[in-house]
Amino acid sequence: MFHLERANAEEFIEVYKGVVAEYNEMVSQLCAGTSVAMEIRSKDGETPQKFREFVGPADPEIARHLRPRTLRAIFGKDKIQNAVHCTDLPEDGLLEVEYFFKILDR
To answer: Which one of 25, 41, 60, 95 is at 20 to 30 Å from 52 when CA atoms are compared?
Structure first.
């Protein structure tokens, strides 16, 4: 479990800066409480994709319409408080795991 300082949260989601209008709100949300970081993997490589499908679309409102049984549809409130951060790209997943478990977890 991690409690992110603002600088760490900004660094973690830096890729969204200037791209997503809600960037500052996303940073604030990441700093608002404790985060649980998990690495999802399998030998066949399909588990991360299946987990992304289980998480659902980033916007809970869209998730409720398109994928109503997903985590974000059930637990998300809005695009900022969407219950779960889940990496879109496998190569980003490797970087995020390294960030949490090799850089922050010292």
So the answer is: 25
For residue 28, give the nearest of 81, 105, 106 by alpha carbon.
Answer: 81
Q: What is the pTM of this model?
A: 0.86
Per-residue pLDDT at 37 exceeds 90: yes
Residues sharing a CB contact under 8 Å with residue 36, sequence separation 6 or more, in sequence order: 1, 2
Render the burial of 76-99: b for 16+ CB within 10 Å, e for the rest.
Answer: beebbebbbebbeeeeebeebbee
38: helix, strand or coil: coil
For the chain, give the percent of residues with pLDDT over 90: 74
Answer whether 83's CB lies under 8 Å from 72's CB: yes
Yes or no: say if 85 and 40 are a contact pair by the CB < 8 Å rule. no
